[in-house]
Amino acid sequence: MKKVLFIFALVVGGLFNQSLQAQEVVKLDQTTGEFTQQELNLKAGETYVFEVTNSGVDHEVGFVIAPKGKTDQEHHIPEAYLSKTITDGETAASQEVTLEEGEYVYFCPMNPTPQYTLTVK
């Protein structure tokens, strides 16, 4: 019985560890009127978490990803929204996001920022 429990613990631990390694954190800084990283190239089918820091913007900011040319709210990728809007000095993260191959844009509608290119291959 101890062997079975030990093997079960190894399998569950391995799956948990794989889950933690399966996502990549994409860190972005938002300053007044812009993101400091102005283009992203990501891999299709990979899992990402977007972490945004408000670096000097004197009001709340957010984060949006949408397909290029379809930036209306109905086309936003809701998993990419930050867990909350953030004020100067704060950081927040999205949920896990997996994107299909294609061209997207990311931006902050509250700051506001330009729409930056996010290419997924």
CATH class group: Mainly Beta
- State the fourth-level CATH superfamily: Cupredoxins -  blue copper proteins
Residue share in β-strands: 35-45%
Structural class comes to alpha+beta
Envelope shape: globular
- Give the radius of gyration: 18 Å
Please estimate the helix content.
10-25%
How many DSSP H or I helices? 1
> What is the H/E string?
HEEEEEEEEE
Low-confidence segments: 3-20
- CATH architectural label: Sandwich
Mean pLDDT: 88
> What is the number of strand segments?
9
Q: How many structural domains? A: 1
Distance N to C terminus:
47 Å
Largest sheet: 5 strands, mixed
CATH topology, by name, is Immunoglobulin-like
Structure description:
- The protein is built from one helix and nine strands, in the order H-E-E-E-E-E-E-E-E-E.
- By secondary structure, the protein is α+β, with helices and mostly antiparallel strands.
- The chain has one domain: Cupredoxins -  blue copper proteins (Immunoglobulin-like), CATH 2.60.40.
- The strands form two sheets. Strands 1, 2, 4, 6 and 7 form a five-stranded mixed beta sheet that branches.
- Strand 8 and strand 9 form a beta hairpin.
- The longest helix has 20 residues.
- It starts with a helix and ends with a strand.
- The N terminus is likely disordered.
